[in-house]
Design goal:
The protein has one domain: Hexapeptide repeat proteins (UDP N-Acetylglucosamine Acyltransferase, domain 1, 3 Solenoid), CATH 2.160.10.10. It is built from one helix and 21 strands. The strands form four sheets. A six-stranded parallel beta sheet has the order 1-4-7-10-13-16, with no helix packed on it. The chain has a six-stranded parallel beta sheet with strand order 3-6-9-12-15-18, with no helix packed on it.
């Protein structure tokens, strides 16, 4: 009996999650700047606001418990549109956060692991007499090229351009541009391999100063 009730509960939860998911024809989906065919934001999300400044391509899946936002608070009028663009055939892993204020452009066929964080805004620290929350919050555009993969727990910081077909290792922190067809790992992330002129080249770590 317990197993039967457990199965009924599990099935009902799965059914409700499918019904609550956000798609292009749902009431919530129609609020987005664009929401491509056969794309889905799985239920439950963590945070979604200012959808009118967010564009999602077709055949893209955004996992559960993802934070997806434009601006700092609901109802904010953003200066660019879309602030966040996610391309076609993308997969955004569970528990990830994509928080845009100016411009985050994610290309086609970009996949991420779980708990990846991407932002185009950071906190300034020019005046040590003021608390961090009251200081400037500079915004710099972020771009992630087609076909790239961001490993579990990786972080992409403002001003970064990640090229096409780039692999970012798990738990890496991307603070600078990464070239096409490369593999980068670490905090801060550095390129350890790159495909150049038909050959994979290993990039040696420079000696410590």
């Amino acid at each position: 009996m317990k197993a039967f009730l457990g199965a009924v509960y599990a099935n009902s939860q799965e059914t409700l999650a499918r019904w609550a998911a956000i798609g292009p024809s749902s009431k919530r989906g129609r609020k987005f700047a664009s929401f491509g065919d056969r794309s889905i934001i799985m239920w439950p999300p963590t945070t979604i606001f200012n959808e009118e400044f967010i564009s999602i391509g077709s055949h893209t899946m955004i996992g559960q418990h993802v934070a997806l936002s434009a601006g700092m608070m609901p109802g904010q009028l953003c200066v660019t549109s879309p602030v966040v663009r996610i391309g076609d055939r993308c997969l955004i892993g569970r528990g990830s956060g994509i928080v845009g204020h100016f411009s985050i452009d994610i290309g086609n066929d970009v996949w991420t692991g779980h708990h990846v964080y991407i932002t185009d805004q950071n906190h300034g620290y020019e005046d040590i007499s003021r608390v961090i929350s009251q200081q400037t919050q500079p915004e710099r555009a972020v771009r992630i090229g087609d076909g790239s993969w961001l490993g579990h727990g990786s972080i992409v910081l403002p001003g970064v351009t990640i090229g096409r077909h780039v692999v970012v290792g798990a738990n890496s922190v991307v603070t600078c541009d990464l070239p096409d067809y490369s593999v980068a790992v670490g905090a801060p992330a550095r390129v350890i391999r790159q495909f150049i002129d038909g050959t994979w080249l290993s990039i040696q770590k420079p000696p410590s100063q």
